Amino acid sequence: MNIDLSSMSSTSVYHLMTQTIIPRPIAWVLSENNDASLNLAPFSYFNAVCSDPPLLMLSMGKKPNGNTKDTSANLVEGKFCVIHIAHAQQSDQVTGTAATLEYGESEIEANQIELISHDNWPIKRIKESPIAYLCKVHSTQEIGNTPQQLVFAEAIEVYIDDAAVNQENNRIKVDALKVNPLARLGASQYANLGEVFSKSRPM
Asked: 116 has which bridge partners?
């Protein structure tokens, strides 16, 4: 099947892309509202894009009513966020925080998520998430005919659960199976890692 994307609506393209660019990592983003409350939401248009400086990229659309998403507004106006990698057992909570709530209404309380303070960082992190990137907003840009907000977040520090980390030959090695990250597929589908295997790369 060959599909001409130019003949499709942006919504149809979105549904097709999210079913074919798989699996996708999920950025579970904690940010501060302008009333000092916290907002938590997942985004799967997300990845690492630079190592120097260490930059993560998020792409966010609008709410169903066309308004700006709370996370987008917070990161355009604010400086800090924490980007978590959830484990597969947190799928219900991740899904729950995707719901559209009124600005300032707490996804954290609604989904019984426990936060923990992190030394020398203005925003708490999710206690049970195995990985958390503590980030400052580097830059933002709006793109697309149906506007998407791009946010480039500079990672200042990363928390990794000790149970998932080994040191080998002075190099940090993260055990992906112990992280057990939640991955996004199309529609309402998620996945975990399943089998992990290695291949030798040509020199």
From this structure: 125
